[in-house]
Amino acid sequence: MRARTAPVAALLFTSGFCALVYQVSWLREFRLIFGASTLASAAVLAIFIGGLGIGGLLLGPRADRHPRPLLFYATLESIVAVMAALSPLLLAVARTIYLASGGSSRLGIAAATAERLVLSVIVLAVPTIAMGGTLPAAARAVTRSADTRRQDLATLYALNTLGAVAGCLVATFFLLEIYGTRATIWLAAALNILVAVVARAVTLAETMSSRAQISVRGAKAIIARITEGRFDEDETVHALYEASVTSDDYT
Predict the structure, then answer these.
(1) Residue from 15, 11, 37 nearest 132 by CA
(2) Which of 70, 71, 107, 205 has its CA 20 to 30 A from that of 62?
(3) Cα-based distances in Å from 193 to 18, 32, 71, 159, 249
């Protein structure tokens, strides 16, 4: 595993862990609101998986165009964390609305299912769409043209999936049993914030490293021209520009 890929893979493992902690927690909460019927569970899962797909579709191209995809990834993780932390409040609103409407006993199956979908969208749309853009952004951050077998991308996908498995197991058998749903969601949100902070720190470190490389290349260009006895201000500026363009871009 490349030195560049390892920290990003660790971040994706953690974000995958948090995502499944959220899913298990949200599904549990929605079952308390909508009931444990197949239609109710299907509505929640449809919005969750649909949000991930929409996020990948909408945010994937933006990640490709972003000059700092790891910074974009950090922003998405921050959005996920904030919206997840607010989700217990939104769930309380959804519960109030659903109970006031009377549920399927008053509305009928079709209308109640539509209401469940709408309420699920209110709670889950923003965080799940943001989640859907995290893998494309992280993948863009480590993609190399020389990696024709896409081993770096495979590593990211594998670690993200393993993190999701771990999150599902830990949430189901440990966190929810000990801390309850709200505290579990907030713990995952805090971990998500940590992921965003670390991603920003990695981006900052690589930016400083890139600027240092540019400075070294520029200094070498000036020294070379002085040594050769052909120091010219315009040519030196051009050499500095070339040094900045040809320096290794961390994206």
Answers:
(1) 15
(2) 205
(3) 11, 28, 13, 19, 26
CB distance 74 to 199 below 8 Å = yes
CA dist., res. 245 & res. 83, Å (int): 39
Question: Do both 143 and 169 map to the same domain?
Answer: yes
Q: What is the CATH number of the domain that holds 150?
A: 1.20.1250
Instruction: Supply the DSSP string of 85-125, one letter for each residue.
Output: HHHHHHHHHHHHHHHHHTHHHHH-HHHHHHHHHHHHHHHHH
d(CA 136, CA 160): 12
> How far apart, in Å, are the Cα atoms of 164 and each of 48, 161, 170?
14, 5, 10
For residue 213, is it within any domain?
yes
What pLDDT, in 10s, does the model give residues 100-145?
Answer: 988 777 888 888 888 889 999 999 999 999 999 999 999 888 876 6
pLDDT digits (tens, 9 = 90+) for 133-162: 999 999 888 876 655 566 778 889 999 999
CA distance 152 to 4: 9
Which residue range(s) make up the domain with 102? 5-205
Number of domains within the chain = 2
State the pTM of this model.
Answer: 0.81
